[in-house]
Amino acid sequence: MINGQTAPGFEGVRDAFAANFTAGAEVGAAVSVYLHGQPVVDLWGGIADPDTERPWERDTLQVVFSTTKAATAACLLLLVERGEVDLDAPVADYWPEFAAAGKDRLPVRWLLTHQAGLAALDKPVARDEALSWHPMAEALAAQQPLWEPGTDHGYHALTFGWLVGEVVRRVSGRSLGGFFRAEIAEPLDLDFHIGVPAAEQHRVSKLVMPPPNFDPLPDDLPEPIRQLAEAFADPTSLTRRAYACVEPAFDHNDPDEQTAEIPATNGICTARALARFYAGLIGDGHRILSPETIRQATTQHVGGPDLVTRLPFHVGLGFGLPTPDAAWYSPSAFGFSGLGGSLGYADPETGIAFGYVMNNVRSSPAAEEPATNLIKALPG
């Protein structure tokens, strides 16, 4: 059963949301849309926990993986806007230990643009140590860049959160999750957490992860996806290493991981909070960042094939920019997607702010289909 409301003219989004369930793409999910600061879609349905049959409720929380990165970037950009951080100053000005291994002149800007050359570690950090924050920050400070910083870009899939978060921590005196809560989530009344309080953990849905696939790759797999899959299968590739800098690998169903701060991947929120966050970025009520900061942050800084994902990746200052083939593409749109299909984005030109979350983590290329269906159903 689909629950929630749509404003007149947005009924097609409800139909598309229901169709995603009928097609078997969803277990539990929610979608929210704001238009010029006003909620026009707020829908949820399905099962939050297949093991217990707990239904998805209005306040069900969802891990959104890399969709978190936009919230993390916003924290650093807020410090930049306040004059507390200079994007062109060396990271080491704020984090002295970072100067090791020839990184003494590496600017803060390149942390946001995935140009720092620190997408992986020579020696992975143990999971429990990564959850305690400081060992990972120390490992990144000591790490020699894997390519000459500034010359290319490679998706810092996991390390992005600690790199940006440590600068925020050194400058503000607060953890990234604490800064986000006090400076962004609470002023906008967002049910959005980077490190969910234990008292709210009962509302978090259970991720349904795809089974490992050891079969030969399908013949009809798009070539870029084939290359990415082959890179993942090679333990020596930068692609594999970027996702293996923590051992054993993260499992975001783990309560310890949900309450820890992993600012690249463990944001936990409702679709409503995700859409409201993007509405706040483009000027709904309590504005998170100034129009000029948003303009600079959503101007493309790097683009083209990415060293880690092997796919086209276009990014501003921490915010992802859609490629022309993306359903949410427009010249002014910005946002970030997450593993399995979650997506948050805003388009200042149309006034749309969109949030979609789900617990059925699908493998690429099918991951984008449910959100694409919802976006295509938006009027206009």
Main attributes of the structure:
single chain, 3-stranded antiparallel sheet, Beta-lactamase, 380 residues, 13 helices, alpha+beta, 14 strands, 7-stranded antiparallel sheet
**CATH topology type of the domain at 60-213 and 240-322:** Beta-lactamase
Q: Could you describe the largest sheet, including whether it forms a barrel?
A: 7 strands, antiparallel
Unreliable parts: none
Order of helices and strands: EHEEEEHHEHHHHEHHEHEHHEEEEEH
State the helicity in percent bands: 25-40%
What's the CATH first level of the domain at 60-213 and 240-322? Answer: Alpha Beta
Description of the molecule:
It is a single chain. The protein is 31% helix and 16% strand. It is built from 13 helices and 14 strands. It is globular. Residues 18-373 form the Beta-lactamase-related domain. This is CubicO group peptidase, beta-lactamase class C family. It comes from Kibdelosporangium aridum.
Give me a quick take on this structure.
This protein is of the alpha+beta class. Helices cover 31% and strands 16% of the residues. The protein contains 13 helices and 14 strands.
Topology readout:
Elements: E1 2-6, H1 11-22, E2 28-35, E3 38-49, E4 54-55, E5 62-63, H2 68-81, H3 109-112, E6 125-126, H4 127-131, H5 134-142, H6 159-172, H7 176-188, E7 192-194, H8 223-233, H9 238-242, E8 246-247, H10 255-259, E9 267-269, H11 271-281, H12 291-297, E10 314-315, E11 320-321, E12 334-337, E13 343-347, E14 352-358, H13 369-376
Parallel strand pairs: 6-8
Antiparallel strand pairs: 1-3, 2-3, 2-14, 3-4, 5-9, 7-9, 10-11, 12-13, 13-14
Helix pairs in contact: 1-13, 2-6, 2-7
